[in-house]
UniProtKB/TrEMBL annotation, chain A:
It catalyses: Thiol-dependent hydrolysis of ester, thioester, amide, peptide and isopeptide bonds formed by the C-terminal Gly of ubiquitin (a 76-residue protein attached to proteins as an intracellular targeting signal). This is ubiquitinyl hydrolase 1. One of its GO terms (molecular function) is cysteine-type deubiquitinase activity. SUPFAM superfamilies: Cysteine proteinases, Ubiquitin-like. GO terms for biological process: proteasome-mediated ubiquitin-dependent protein catabolic process; protein deubiquitination; regulation of proteasomal protein catabolic process. Belongs to the peptidase C19 family.
UniProtKB/TrEMBL annotation, chain B:
It holds the Pfam family RPN1_C. The lineage of its organism: Eukaryota, Viridiplantae, Streptophyta, Embryophyta, Tracheophyta. Component of the 19S regulatory particle (RP/PA700) base subcomplex of the 26S proteasome. The 26S proteasome is composed of a core protease (CP), known as the 20S proteasome, capped at one or both ends by the 19S regulatory particle (RP/PA700). The RP/PA700 complex is composed of at least 17 different subunits in two subcomplexes, the base and the lid, which form the portions proximal and distal to the 20S proteolytic core, respectively. Residues 76-294 form the RPN1 N-terminal domain. The keyword Nucleotide-binding does not apply. GO terms for biological process: proteasome-mediated ubiquitin-dependent protein catabolic process; regulation of protein catabolic process. The keyword Ubl conjugation applies. Residues 14-37 have a biased composition (Basic and acidic residues). This is 26S proteasome non-ATPase regulatory subunit 2 homolog. It comes from the Eukaryota. Belongs to the proteasome subunit S2 family. One of its GO terms (cellular component) is nucleus. Residues 1-45 are annotated as: Disordered. Keywords: Proteasome, Repeat, Ubl conjugation.
Length: 422, 833
């Protein structure tokens, strides 16, 4: 008979008697009563070795009062879940990138960055996407089928972008674009010339608006116009003759004129809506200076803003780029650029949501102040607050480089209410 | 007395210069043609005399020859002193004595060269030393005695007033002396400490010398049980295995109690006391560490699909951050919530990732053997080999630095060493290496050695066996283990020698000689016969390990020369050479700073494979000590175009900030995590580094140095060096399937605390001042030892370069080195005011 103490977890079972004539299994059964650990799961440690069930006590030279240690638990044994998790590394390469949450890029076909960035911007408009995917080629017997073809090409390009996770080479689209607008096919030293993204944007909208006109008049007549078009009500005022006339026009973008006093997008927009022009005054019988003041009469779902950074330097006869830093917010409020009528319409919804929005505004301006690099920006406002006159920044195209004839375009698209990704 | 940093060197040096210029014929630097004109009349006279003497030396008359020789000693004051009357040496003042001392030193070397007797000089030395020791000039006395090679004389002259300063100077001078003088100097310091019953310091030196005889002597010389307890705490921090015998502690019950302290059984409790006091018990998730919300810019809502690589990173981060706390939010979720997703974290890791995940439980329960084994038990019954491997490794980790009579780690792991599956074998082998590092356990050797020479064993099993043996026998110079590893190396085929893991074989061999200097030579000789593919690698590893922590300048130069070579083919031996630079130079501050500067050069001029090792080297030099300059260098390198350099720099950022919660490094790593968001490998490294910086929620350190940077824990250094060697080939080891080598860091993990306990070893809180340590070597009087201090109550955290002192007279600490566990005794003379 031996007496030992057994340490198990934080407990110590003192003075347990071992009947050395019985195999260790009996001892384990004793411990089972004390600890509740089934004998087969007990591990008893004796001086650097484990106690075997069939061991001989006499060979172990145990001393009276020796301390033993037991490991074991009645816990459930870990089991692997029936269905293991799917790991990103197991997925095919293409899907791995998709899981990082970025959409596919477009391959530069040689000086086509203006086109790529424009298309990425257009792509960021979900309504246009759905509109295009529903588009059925009209195949009318019009003489000019090119707008239709281009729209089909656009539609195909977008669906390809949706499916693919790798960069897409927009070759068919590029062919169609050149066919419709030969100016983009101009060559210079054997290469395609650099082009203006703004021009591309305007032309694309033009084409799309032509071909996306609904076949039946009952529906919205012009999807593109509803999305991007805005009406300006302009008042022409001649200071000399006090003549006044007003007109409305429909445009696709607001221009942000940049002069030396413009530091912020908002100021530029105001600037762009006021202009002087010379025209023949019927009252005076000669040309006179008219002041044109425009106000927005109706707002589109997406507002396009163009920073007019390229201008013609008259003295040196060359195009130049204005490198002035202009801040733009991630949220744009154009309330005070609206006409009286529109303001009235906007007021009610604004009241309800003003508080939350104000806070957001300050935030947004803070984080966007560093982006003075961006030059020609086509900005689009999101329409969650369509009725409030407040726009979220959805995407922008920026031009990098100092001169007007060269440089690179990059599109920045906002990801689901989070961050900008190139 | 005003502080005179090292008056002997300054004034003595000047004097000596003067003396030599007076005798131009002895000064080779003087230009010959100008000699005559430049000399004053006095000099001219001297010169003539000298010529006369030279003439007379050649004289056949021996009488005349002798006087000539004596007078020729160009040392005026010494000459007169020797021929003149013997009087009080101090009556001519300090300046005279110093001058005399300088002259004696030179005369001594001269006579040694001629092998002429020095007895008359030694008489003078006796007087001078006695004078210096009485007049607060211990440093000068020591300098003189070192010059005349008779330090034993010191013993006669030290007294209770000056022995501390004397020993302080001796120990710090030892760092700059070439061997074997350094050992001699420390020996004297030890003898003096024992003489004045300053046992903690004596023990410190005994540990430094790695002299178990001395350690034992400290125990036998001291009779106070409480003080012996303090010794045990010091030994446990150093991490060596020591079996107390009845001679050291006679009473059985007492001995058992002291052995418990040496065995570190209460480390977990102490650490948790600290954690509760600082209020950081709350478990942290990897997301709490990543702090992604602070990043502006590119943050997506996270990938929708689990990434095995990133989950593995999270496993490590979780393990490092919650190390030793016994609770976390991934692995130790209460069993009743097994249905929850958290309990399945283990299975969110893939294949070999499960090994690291299971082992992370051991890290979370670090030092708490009882709970650790209880919780790891469930993995033992799994039928998934990687999980069993993890459980085995986890047992090793839990037992790291803790010894137990029942040897649970050996009992549990021993069974699995020879299993079929190699991942299980590696788990068991590595676990043993970690649990028994430094123990020199014969039983383990006899079971691991055969693996090394088993022709059927896979390479990775052999590599880990060599490594574990190296750790278990670290710094032992064990012949048999060395032989086994050497044979294993010789048996490797050409192809195997090219494998990344083969590097663990030379490393295991090197660890056997860690810090043992010349003892390595025989083995180094043998290594020259190895296959050329591994020969130089082995050479460099052995050299750097053997001289690790010695600050040996010659070895640093050897290694630098290796790094400077521009090799045609891609040779891997330069990696360990660069690491070796840091290993050799890391021990003392001056050498360390010089090394940081010279690494900058290596970075500029070195080849690519040298550059890759430089960040790791910097990481070792400043481990858990985030110096701003090094931080900046590493931050720059973390954006290097060579991704291997960048990875090494990122891991090193983690190492230098390990356990500090350093906000600047944390910010850098956060930015890197967004910079490298697309590169899974680099992101993995960033995550690991983030985990390291917040290791133990800022309560731990990886520094192998302790006791005011005097002592170097061999096991801790072994753990770090192993990881660094693994980092030399990041892609195949850490980014491959052997990521669990990261757990070798556990060997270096120690709480960076000072915890005061009363005479019953219960924690008590007392006010202490914590401030930047001041170097007081060679300063007279009782200078302040810390500066810019703040007062806290214990337990407190000590950062690198900080020192604590008691802010109350109510208690007397039993060790002058206030680190780790400190026993306080009530001061009998204390009166409440």
């Amino acid at each position: 008979m031996l007496t030992v103490s057994v340490k198990w977890q934080k407990k110590v079972f003192k003075s347990i008697e071992i009947d050395t004539s019985q195999p260790p299994y009996v001892f384990k059964a004793q411990l089972y009563e004390l600890s509740g650990v089934p004998p087969e799961r007990q591990k008893i440690m004796v001086k650097g070795g484990l106690l075997k069930d069939d061991a001989d006590w006499s060979t172990m030279r145990l001393k009276n009062g020796q301390k033993l240690m037991m490991m074991g638990s009645a816990d459930e044994v870990v089991k692997a879940p029936e269905k293991g998790p799917v790991f990103m590394e197991d997925l095919p390469e293409e899907e791995q990138d998709a899981n990082l949450g970025y959409s596919a890029g477009l391959v530069n076909l040689g000086h086509t960055c203006y086109m790529n960035s424009t298309m990425q911007c257009l792509k960021s408009v979900p309504e246009l996407n759905s509109e295009l995917s529903n588009y059925q080629s009209a195949r009318t017997k019009d003489v000019d089928q090119t707008p239709d073809m281009l729209t089909v090409a656009t539609s195909e390009l977008f669906s390809e972008l949706d499916k693919s996770v790798k960069a897409v080479a927009p070759m068919p689209f590029w062919m169609e674009l050149k066919k419709k607008y030969p100016q983009f096919a101009q060559l210079h030293n054997g290469n395609y010339m650099q082009q203006d993204a703004e021009e591309c944007w305007t032309q694309m909208l033009d084409t799309l608006s032509q071909s996306l006109k609904a076949p039946s008049p009952s529906e919205d007549p012009d999807a593109v116009k509803a999305l991007f078009g805005l009406n300006l009500r302009s008042r022409l005022h001649c200071q000399e003759s006090s003549e006044e006339s007003s007109e409305t026009e429909s445009v696709y973008s607001l221009k942000c004129h940049i002069s030396h006093e413009v530091n912020h997008l908002h100021e530029g927009l105001k600037h762009g809506l006021r202009g002087e022009l010379e025209k023949t005054s019927p009252a005076l019988g000669r040309t006179a200076v008219y002041i044109k003041e425009s106000l927005i009469d109706s707002l589109p779902r997406y507002l396009t803003v163009q920073f007019v950074r390229f201008f013609w330097k008259r003295e040196s006869n060359e195009k130049a780029k204005i490198l002035r830093k202009v801040d733009y917010p991630l949220e744009l409020d154009i309330f005070d650029l609206c006409s009286e009528d529109l303001r009235k319409k906007l007021e009610a919804p604004r009241q309800s949501s003003s508080k939350g929005d104000d806070v957001k505004m300050t935030d947004a301006e803070g984080s966007s102040s560093g982006s003075g690099e961006s030059s020609t920006g086509d900005q689009q406002g999101g329409a969650l607050s369509h009725m409030t006159g407040i726009y979220d920044l959805v995407s922008l195209v920026t031009h990098k480089g100092r001169s007007a004839d060269s440089g690179h375009y990059v599109a920045w698209v906002k990801q689901e209410s989070e961050v900008l990704i190139s | 007395m005003a502080p005179v940093p090292d008056p002997n060197n300054i004034s003595g040096g000047a004097k000596r210069d003067e003396a030599t210029t007076k005798v131009p014929s002895k000064d080779p630097k003087k230009k010959d043609d100008k000699k005559e004109e430049d000399m004053s009349e006095e000099d001219l006279q001297l010169k003539q005399n000298l010529e006369l003497y030279v003439e007379r030396v050649q004289d056949p008359n021996p009488e005349l020859q002798k006087t000539a020789l004596e007078s020729m000693s160009s040392f005026e004051s010494l000459g007169y002193r020797l021929t003149g009357t013997e009087g009080d040496i101090g009556s001519w003042g300090h300046e005279y004595v110093r001058n005399l001392a300088g002259e004696i030193a030179e005369e001594y070397t001269m006579r040694q060269g001629e092998e002429s007797p020095v007895d008359d000089l030694m008489d003078l030395v006796q007087q001078i030393v006695a004078f210096h020791m009485k007049h607060n000039a211990e440093t000068e006395a020591v300098d003189l005695l070192m010059d005349v090679e008779d330090l034993d004389l010191l013993l006669k002259h030290v007294d209770s007033a000056n022995f501390r300063r004397t020993c302080n100077y001796l120990t710090s001078a030892a760092k700059y002396l070439p061997g074997p003088d350094d050992m001699l100097v420390l020996d004297i310091a030890y003898t003096i400490y024992i003489k004045f019953e300053e046992y903690p310091n004596a023990l410190q030196i005994a540990l430094f010398l790695d002299n178990m005889q001395y350690v034992k002597q400290v125990f036998t010389s001291c009779t106070d049980l409480l003080r012996k307890k303090q010794f045990c705490y010091m030994i446990s921090r150093h991490g060596i295995t020591l079996e107390l015998d009845p001679e050291m502690v006679s009473d059985d019950v007492d001995r058992e109690m002291l052995q418990d302290i040496v065995n570190n059984t209460k480390l977990s409790d102490g650490y948790l006391t600290l954690a509760r006091d600082i209020e950081v018990m709350e478990a942290k998730t990897p997301e709490d560490i990543y702090k992604a919300h602070l990043l502006d810019g590119r943050v997506t809502s996270g990938p929708s699909v689990d990434s095995a690589r990133q989950n593995l990173a999270a496993t490590f981060v979780n393990a490092f951050v919650n190390a030793g706390f016994g609770q976390d939010k991934l692995m130790t979720v209460p069993s009743d919530s097994t249905s929850g997703s958290a309990a399945n974290w283990l299975f969110k890791n893939r294949d070999h990732g499960k090994t690291s995940a299971a082992a992370s439980l051991g890290m979370i329960l670090l030092w708490d053997v009882d709970s650790g084994l209880a919780q790891l038990d469930k993995y033992f019954h799994s039928n998934d080999n990687p999980i069993i491997a993890g459980a085995l490794l986890g047992v090793g980790i839990v037992n790291c630095g803790i010894k137990n009579d029942c040897d649970p780690a050996l009992a549990l792991l021993g069974e699995y060493i020879d299993k079929e599956d190699s991942s299980v074998r590696i788990g068991a082998i590595m676990g043993l290496g970690i649990a028994y590092a430094g123990s020199q356990n014969d039983q383990i050797r006899s079971s691991l050695s055969p693996i090394l020479n088993d022709a059927k064993a896979p390479l990775d099993v052999i590599a880990f066996a060599a490594l574990s043996l190296g750790m278990i026998y670290v710094g032992s110079c064990n012949e048999e283990v060395a032989q086994s590893i050497i044979f294993a190396l010789m048996d490797r085929s050409e192809a195997e020698l090219g494998e990344a893991l083969t590097r663990f074989l030379p490393l295991g061999l090197g660890l056997l000689y860690l810090g043992k200097q010349e003892s390595v030579e025989a083995t180094a000789e043998v290594s020259k016969t190895f296959n050329e593919k591994i020969r130089k690698y082995c050479d460099m590893t052995l050299l750097s390990c053997a001289y690790a922590g010695t600050g040996n300048v010659l070895k640093v130069q050897d290694l630098l020369a290796q790094c400077g070579e521009h090799l045609e083919k891609d040779d891997i031996h330069q990696g360990p050479a660069v690491l070796g630079l840091a290993m050799v130079a890391m021990s003392e501050e001056l050498g360390l700073d010089m090394e940081i500067r010279s690494l900058e050069r290596v970075l500029q001029y070195g080849e690519q494979n040298v550059r890759r090792a430089v960040p790791l080297s910097l990481g070792l030099l400043c481990i858990s000590n985030p110096k701003v300059t090094v931080m900046d260098t590493l931050s720059r390198l973390s954006h290097d175009t060579d991704s291997e350099v960048a990875m090494a720099a990122i891991i090193s950022l983690g190492l230098i900030g390990a356990g500090t919660n350093n906000a600047r490094i944390a910010g850098m790593l956060r930015n890197l995590s967004s910079y490298y968001y697309k590169d899974a490998s680099l992101l993995f490294c960033v995550r690991i580094a983030q985990g390291l910086v917040h290791m133990g929620k800022g309560l731990l350190t990886l520094s192998p140095f302790h006791s005011e940077r005097l002592l170097l824990s061999p096991t801790a250094l072994a753990g770090i060096v192993t990881l660094l060697h693994a980092c030399l080939d990041m892609k195949s080891i850490i980014l491959g399937k052997y990521h669990y080598v990261l757990y070798f860091l556990v060997l270096a993990m120690q709480p960076r605390m000072m915890l005061t306990v009363d005479e019953n070893l219960k924690p008590i809180s007392v006010p202490v001042r914590v401030g930047q340590a001041v170097d007081v070597v060679g300063q007279a009087g009782r200078p302040k030892t810390i500066t810019g201090f703040q007062t806290h109550s214990t337990p407190v955290l000590l950062a690198a370069g900080e020192r604590a002192e008691l802010a109350t007279d109510k208690y007397i600490p039993l060790s002058p080195i206030l680190e780790g566990f400190i026993i306080l005794k009530e001061n009998p003379d204390y009166r409440e005011e």
